[in-house]
Amino acid sequence: MYTDKVMEHFANPSNVGELPDANGIGEVGNAKCGDIMKMYLKIEGGIIQDVRFKTFGCGAAIATSSIATELIKGKPIEDALALSNKTVVKELGGLPDAKLHCSVLAEQAVKAAVSDYYKRQGIEPSLFVIAVKDGTSHEEHICCGEGGNCS
Questions:
Q1: What domains sit in the chain, N to C, each tagged with a CATH number?
Q2: Residue 143 is among the residues annotated as catalytic for this protein
Q3: Which residue from 73, 116, 113, 71 is spatially nearest to 89, judged by alpha carbons?
Q4: CA gap 10, 13 in Å, rounded
Q5: What is the mean pLDDT of each run of 10 residues along the chain (151 residues)?
Q6: Known catalytic residue: 150?
C-alpha cells in the first residue's frame, strides 16, 4: 500500500516540532479526514533557513509533511512557492489515491506559512502566493484537496 520511502518518513520524520523563532506559520486542515498540519518557517534574506512541522493525522499526512520540509529547507522562498503536491507524491514514490489529499495539505501548509511570512513583512501575500485557498484567517487555511474534494 505505501512505499518504503513513505514508511520511512512516517516512522522517522524529518524536522518535527515547533520553531520558536518562526517568522512564518501556516496551518491547514481537512475537515473530512481530520488531518491538521502546521508548518513553521524561519526565513532570512529570502532563504528558508529552518523549517519544522507538527501534524495530527495519518501516516501519509506525516510523511508528506516530512518530505515537504526536506524539499524546501535551505531553498529560496520561490522554491517553496513552486512546491506542488505532485512533487511531494513523486518524491515519496507515490501515494494511494485515497491519500493524495495529504500531499495537497503539505503543499498548502507551506504556502500558508509563506503567506503568513509576507503578511508579517507588511507585504500583500496574494501578489506572490496564489495557490492558498483562504477561507478563514491568515493563520488558518482550510481546504479539502484539489477542487475542494475531500478524499
A1: 4-145 (3.90.1010.10)
A2: no
A3: 71
A4: 6
A5: 96 97 94 90 97 96 97 96 95 94 94 95 81 38 33 33
A6: no
